[in-house]
Design a protein that fits this description.
It is built from 18 helices and eleven strands. It has helices at about 5-15, 25-35, 40-60, 70-75, 150-160, 190, 200-205, 220-230, 245-250, 265-275, 280-290, 295-305, 315-330, 335-345, 355-365, 370-375, 385-405, 405-415, and strands at about 65, 90, 95-100, 120-125, 140-145, 165-170, 175-180, 195, 215-220, 290, 380. The structure holds zinc ion.
């Protein structure tokens, strides 16, 4: 079976941007297409496109985890809500697009009216998608879904891939289900086999990690959002989650703490810094997720001088951006080294000495300061900004209910999270 996501993606591309598409848009699209074409990503994305339609019918949402949240192809296919292009204005009426250097992130751009009189959309979260390292070995996608929809997802998978067998594994706590796409079996034997396998044997067991797979995680926030949308008959994708009023409440920390990310530990810091836009809030959320040596000292430094926040990088993509800017200053425009550096730093491989000596030498040779490499060596883990952005959109949709349907919120949110003191 051929999975042609590109025809659909290109149709959307032209419907939005016309025939003459701006260079940053085509460049971004072509880069992703070149990397993902003829890989199993096509199969996974085709299914997710189908699942997104199914979820929309139900007024439910899924939330992409990991770096695919900032894939432009996924955005065109309506699998993610995060537009990863550079910051820009877009006129939904006359399709005018205007890139802007005024802010780092499109959601921070000031309001603007198009020359045709229509209010322009402000978008473009400026986030690179780097599947380069992952793709050759293990093609997978992880999603948050309402737990109640796990059975539905399995039904859809089996119907969508009528001759495919899957190895299904649940975690002990039943909070995550994984489906691995098993190699096809031909002949009469194929008909006799169960299509969902719970216990792999032999070669299947040995290679299980390299088969393409999905992880579906039961996410209380997606479950709550689904409940709220059904009760109020609101479609989740039509919630005005980036309205100025909602964002003001969000930046002023007037919303329940669990709407700032479930593992967010920096409430005190955020309240002290009072971010006014995403470019200030995002690094703080990244710091909340990151794990590094000397983290408490870094927090103390930021506490006494807020500007220090920008001396460090707390997201995977920020490391990529920073290394790339050093390389460009030296006239290097190929980004392979930046991809590698970000990927090694992300999971703490600079910290575990000896593993990345060659790359360190290359980085220094190409203008990356030793002080920055010393910082990379402190990192145990940093989070993908793409993942944070998909989380934020879900949190803001929930926040809209907190503000506009407060009694319903009070009644229902307790079922999903513990109230904060
Ligand atoms: Zn216009």
């Amino acid at each position: 079976m051929k999975y042609d996501i590109w025809r659909d993606a290109e149709e959307k591309l032209h419907a939005l941007y016309g025939e003459e598409i701006h260079l940053p848009v085509t460049a971004r699209y072509q880069r992703e297409k070149k990397r993902m074409q003829n890989t199993d990503m096509e199969m996974l994305l085709t299914f997710l496109r189908h699942l997104a339609c199914r979820f929309r019918e139900l007024k439910a949402t899924f939330t992409l985890r990991g770096r695919t949240g900032a894939s432009f192809a996924c955005w065109l296919l309506e699998i993610t809500d995060v537009n990863p292009l550079p910051p820009h204005y877009y006129c939904p009426h006359c399709r005018r697009i205007e890139f802007s250097n005024e802010e780092k992130y499109g959601w921070d751009l000031p309001e603007k009216t198009c020359s045709c009189g229509t209010g322009m959309l402000r978008d473009g979260m400026n986030t690179v998608f780097l599947p380069e390292i992952d793709l050759p070995d293990s093609v997978h996608m992880d999603l948050d879904i309402p737990g109640e929809l796990q059975d539905d997802v399995q039904k859809e998978l089996l119907a969508f891939f009528p001759d495919q067998r899957f190895y299904r594994r649940e975690t002990v706590k039943n909070d995550m289900v994984r489906y691995s796409f098993l190699p096809k079996v031909d002949g009469p034997e194929a008909n006799q086999q169960e299509r969902i396998i719970g216990k792999p044997t032999g070669n299947v067991q040995m290679f299980i990690d390299i088969y393409p797979h999905f992880f579906f995680l039961n996410a209380p926030k997606n479950a709550l959002l689904w409940d709220l949308c059904r009760k109020t008959e609101v479609k989740p994708d039509q919630i005005p989650c980036l309205s100025p009023e909602l964002l003001r409440a969000y930046f002023e920390y007037k919303l329940p703490g669990n709407l700032y990310d479930s593992v967010f530990k920096n409430a005190a810091l955020i309240k002290a810094i009072k971010p006014e836009q995403f470019s200030e809030l995002l690094p703080l959320l990244g710091l909340g997720h990151a794990n590094m040596e000397g983290q408490e000292q870094i927090k103390a430094q930021i506490q006494s001088d807020h500007q220090v926040l920008y001396d460090y990088d707390f997201f995977f993509e920020d490391i990529y951006d920073r290394v790339l800017s050093f390389l460009r200053a030296k006239g290097v425009f190929n980004d392979d080294l930046a991809v590698q550096a970000a990927n090694l730093a992300k999971s703490g491989r600079f910290l575990r000495r000896g593993f990345s000596e060659g790359i360190q030498i290359e980085l220094i040779k190409h203008g990356v300061p030793e002080s920055y490499i010393a910082y990379l060596k402190k990192i145990r883990y940093v989070y993908p900004r793409a993942h944070m952005l998909t989380n934020i959109l879900r949190d803001l949709r929930l926040a809209w209910f907190f503000i506009n349907h407060s009694s319903l919120w009070d009644e229902m949110s307790g079922k999903y999270f513990i109230k904060e003191c």
